[in-house]
Every structure is written in C-alpha cells, then in structure tokens.
Structure to design on (586 residues):
C-alpha cells in the first residue's frame, strides 16, 4: 500500500513537471522568439531635440544655436599621399586652416579600431559654407554633416549667470543618458543648473523593414520635445548698462525684486566671453584666467566670500533689539574702546559723541556696535543673523553656491579647537573677523530689511518660491529703516555726498570691509588710497528703493575699492536712474 502511494506521488510529480515544460516551450518561448523576430523587422530610430534657447524677461536671446557644417574624413587613410591629397582639396576652398594642424589631428584620432568618420573641422558657419556644400559632397573620402553650435550673442555680458556648454566628459555621460548622444553639455551657470530642461527629451520612430532592411512602414512615431527654452528674469538692457558703467573694476552687482526674489540683473566682474569654452579653451588661455588675481572665472555672486563690514550693522542692531537692548539705548563714542590690551577704534578719530540706533547706522558708528555686542554676546548675534540668511545658501538657481560663515562659540571650537574671545565678539558686530558672506546673501538680506520677508533669489521665471516670513518686531525694523534712509538723505549720512539724482527715494548702507588688520601701534588709520591695491578694503553698498514702497534692492561690491560710498555711490545712483528710465520704478 505504501509503495503504491509513492508510485502515485511520483507519477503526479512527473506529470506536473511535463506540463510546466510544455507551457514554457509552447507559450513563454513563443513570446521570446516573437519579440526576437520583431527586433529583426522593426527598427527604432531615435530623434534628438535641439538645445533650448535662453532668453531675458523680454524674449531677447542670451544663448542660441548657430547652424553650420562639419568636415569629416574617412578613417584608415594610412597612405600619407592620399591623406595629404584629401586635406589639400579641403584647404583649396578653406585656406584659413593649416595643413600641418589637420594632418596632425587626423593622425591622433585615427586608429585600427576607428570605424566612424573622423571629424577634422568641427564647425563652419552655414553662411560661409553653404555654397561649397555640393562641391565637398562630391569629393572622395570626405563626408559633410550638419552641426549646431552654442552661441552667446552678448559675449561677456551676464557670462557668469548664463554659464556655458562644453565638451562632455565620460563621467557626465554616465550620469546623463541623453547626453551620451551629444558632444556638449551645460558646464556652468544656468546652462548647467537647467541642463535637463534645455537638452529636452528625445523622440523616436519605430520603422518596419523587410529582409533586405528596406523601410516598409512607420509603426510608431514620437517627436522630440520642442519647448526646451528657458526664460529668465534678467533684463539684458539693464545688465549691459551695469556692465558698461562698472568700468574695469572687480566685484559684483545684484538688482533684485525685494518682494519676489526675481533677479533683474546680476554681474560678476571681471567677466569673460562664454563663447571661448564652446569649442574648448587652450591650456595657456585657461592658465592665464586661473592665475589672474582678479579671478574672472569665479562667479563672485555665489562663490565669492567676503567680510561684510558695516553693511552687517542692521542685522547686528536687530539682534540687540531682539535681545533686550532698548530702542533708546545710546553710547558716547570717543573714537576707541579698550578691551583687554587691545584698542578697538572707529573710522572717525575723534569719535561721534552721543549715539543711538539711527545715528549709529547713518554714520556707521563702530563704537555703538562694539558696546552693544558685549551686552548681547556672539551666540545671540549669530542666532539673529542665521534667521536673516547668513551661514546658509540662498537657494538661487546657480551651481555650487557657498554658505559663507556665521560664527559663534561652538563653530570656533569645532573648526579650530579654540575658545571664543570677547574681542572677536566686538569685531564680529561690525562685519569683520570670521564672518564671511556672498553678495547674493547680502542682496537677500537687504530685501528682507525692506519687506520683513526673506525671498528666494531666482533667475528662471518658472522658479519662483514664496518668500519666508521672519518674526521680528515691526517697530524694530522701522527703526533700522529710518537709519538706512538717513544714510542717503542726511548730510551726515555716509552716502549723502556721493549720490545726486535719487537720494530722496533710497534707503541704504555703506560698508568698508578690511582685507588686512590695522596694527595696534598705528594711531591714525591710513587712507585707502595710500594702501597697496590688494591691501585696500572692499567697498560695499546695499540699498533698496523706493523707501516708502520698496520694489528693488541694489547690492554693489567693489573689490579693493576702499570706502563704500566713494567707490560705489555713483554707480548705485546711476542704476536707480536706469531703473526709472526702464519704468521699473516710478
């Protein structure tokens, strides 16, 4: 009986195994071979989109694609006479190229494993080559292809924020499948930040072919994406105007809508022509740019770190008010404050006398902030500045934005394994010491002072994010704003004498950020003009207007410019006049 049961079970197992096998052979294998068969008579041909155009807010093109041709030579031309003869035919009609260079390039790219044509001349403009197209197509060993080349019509203007495209690397191909079919990719600025939008999405065509690989029918067709363009918030008229009036200085300028964070203009100086990177820059040219002390290749808007100097004083004053110092608080400034063995001096040798909040901002009285900071302490000051966006990224749509430094006791202990000293609190209150900021952080902070909200700076019109509401007493902000108004509109204000046309509409603050410390034995501060250029202080102005109904902030940094008002006051004045001319401000 037991043997009979085992026999029955064995028969059942064999039967199930046979049924599964029959199912696999008759159904699953059929699906596999059917798909394999489809591959033999259906071919998928991919279609790729053109890179999107970048425009300003009014539709003016900032980055476009130029149509042209490339000249390609058949590989494996090992006979030098054949190669020379082929290149001679090219040079007969295109004498601007050199024989030796083309032969050397061909030999470097040719190999036994090379089966595709070798691109010898990557791009010739359509208008220059069109009349030669038919002639070149008749030549042996030569193949002409259509090519597209990125072009920046305004050259240096807005170069840092637009960015550029360059030859794609192996790592970039790994991370971007669509880019594997392209020779270029966004390398910097908006070109890189929005590369996935600008490069678009590929389409395809499924084609039915016969045994001779001839096209019979189109089974499916998907067009590549067409709307790959990027519309920015920039007004190129203002951008070009600022580029002209900055006049060979180093630094940056940002004009921002204080309510939305939309950037109307953003420049980093010196600028460079983006077009030099499209075909690849020479090693010598690259080294010269990298070794330039003015750092033309650095996007100073988001990658430049600077001591803010006196433009931090509004944030410091808000911290005082938030942490128990009354709005009627005053000090008597004699010109210096002794802390331990060190004297902390202000910019005015004889001092400013009795000083409250408004006067401290209007006349940039260091002593007021020294003494207030000793009451509040670095940690509380750091907390307020953190709320205002210091020590963190602004979120602007640019690559590799820096955070800057908003120091406190813990930060110094972690970074340097050293205690915090009271003198460091004093100099932090006037924007010196460890604190470092980017111009973009200052533009955002200034917009907050104007509106009570912290906007997210953006360059794409589709990247607006709601501003962040910051909880700070409105009375405190109004006190600070009055001080900023008086900077521009009172004769004792640090900016008053440097502007002409717009002083009654502007709230502002100047700043002079020291690059080197002043020796204790020096009783009288040297004039900035007496210092060596790279030892001169950085000059800041940050402002907003109109005072009663804020629309735009203007933030200016002049590297080694000396006094903020003198170096940048007239520039700021001209920018606001241009904003009126362009009808951004009434």
């Amino acid at each position: 009986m037991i043997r009979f049961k085992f026999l029955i079970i064995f028969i059942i197992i064999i039967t199930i195994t046979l049924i599964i096998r029959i199912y696999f052979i008759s159904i699953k294998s059929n699906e596999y071979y059917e798909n394999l068969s489809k591959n033999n008579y259906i071919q998928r041909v991919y279609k790729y989109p053109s890179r999107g155009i970048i425009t300003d807010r009014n539709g003016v093109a900032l980055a476009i694609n130029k149509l042209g041709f490339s000249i390609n030579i058949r590989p494996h031309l090992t006979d030098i006479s054949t190669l020379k003869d082929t290149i001679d035919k090219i040079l007969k009609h295109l004498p601007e190229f050199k024989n030796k260079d083309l032969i050397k390039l061909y030999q470097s790219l040719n190999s036994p494993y090379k089966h595709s044509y070798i691109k010898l001349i990557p791009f010739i403009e359509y208008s220059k080559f069109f009349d030669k197209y038919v002639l070149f197509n008749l030549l042996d060993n030569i193949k002409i292809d259509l090519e597209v080349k990125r072009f920046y019509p305004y050259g240096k203007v807005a170069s840092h924020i637009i960015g550029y495209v360059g030859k794609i690397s192996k790592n970039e191909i790994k991370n971007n499948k669509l880019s594997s079919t392209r020779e270029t990719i966004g390398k910097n600025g908006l070109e890189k930040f929005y590369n996935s939008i600008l490069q678009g999405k590929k389409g395809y065509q499924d084609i039915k072919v016969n045994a001779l690989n001839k096209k019979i029918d189109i089974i499916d067709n998907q067009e590549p994406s067409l709307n790959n363009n990027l519309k920015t918030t920039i007004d190129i008229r203002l951008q070009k105007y600022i580029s002209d009036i900055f006049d060979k200085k180093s630094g940056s300028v940002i004009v921002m809508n204080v309510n939305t964070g939309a950037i109307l203009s953003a420049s980093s100086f010196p600028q460079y022509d983006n077009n030099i990177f499209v075909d690849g820059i020479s090693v010598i040219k690259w080294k010269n740019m990298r070794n330039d002390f003015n750092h033309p290749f650095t996007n100073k808007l988001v990658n430049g770190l600077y001591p803010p100097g006196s433009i931090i004083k509004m944030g410091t004053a808000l911290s005082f008010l938030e942490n128990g110092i009354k709005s009627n608080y005053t000090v008597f400034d004699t010109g210096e404050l002794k802390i331990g063995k060190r004297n902390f001096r202000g910019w005015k040798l004889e001092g400013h006398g009795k000083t409250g909040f408004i006067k401290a901002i209007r006349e940039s009285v260091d002593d007021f902030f020294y003494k207030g900071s000793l009451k509040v302490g670095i940690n509380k000051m750091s907390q307020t500045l953190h709320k205002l966006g210091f020590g963190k990224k602004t979120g602007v749509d640019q690559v590799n934005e820096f955070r800057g430094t908003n120091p406190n006791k813990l930060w110094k202990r972690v970074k340097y394994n050293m205690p915090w000293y009271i003198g460091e609190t004093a100099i932090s209150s006037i924007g010196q010491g460890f604190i470092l900021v980017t111009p973009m952080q200052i533009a955002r902070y200034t917009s907050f002072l104007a509106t009570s909200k912290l906007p997210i700076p953006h360059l794409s019109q589709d990247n607006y994010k709601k501003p962040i509401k910051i909880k700070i007493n409105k009375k405190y902000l109004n006190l600070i704003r009055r001080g900023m108004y008086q900077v521009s509109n009172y004769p004792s204000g640090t900016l008053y004498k440097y502007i002409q046309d717009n002083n009654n509409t502007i709230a502002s603050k100047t700043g002079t950020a020291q690059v080197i410390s002043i020796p204790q034995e020096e009783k009288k501060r040297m004039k900035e003009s007496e210092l060596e250029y790279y030892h001169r202080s950085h000059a800041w102005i940050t402002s907003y207007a109109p005072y009663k109904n804020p629309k735009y902030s203007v933030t200016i940094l002049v590297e080694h410019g000396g006094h903020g008002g003198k170096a940048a006051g007239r520039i700021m004045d001209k920018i606001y006049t241009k904003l009126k001319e362009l009808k951004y401000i009434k």
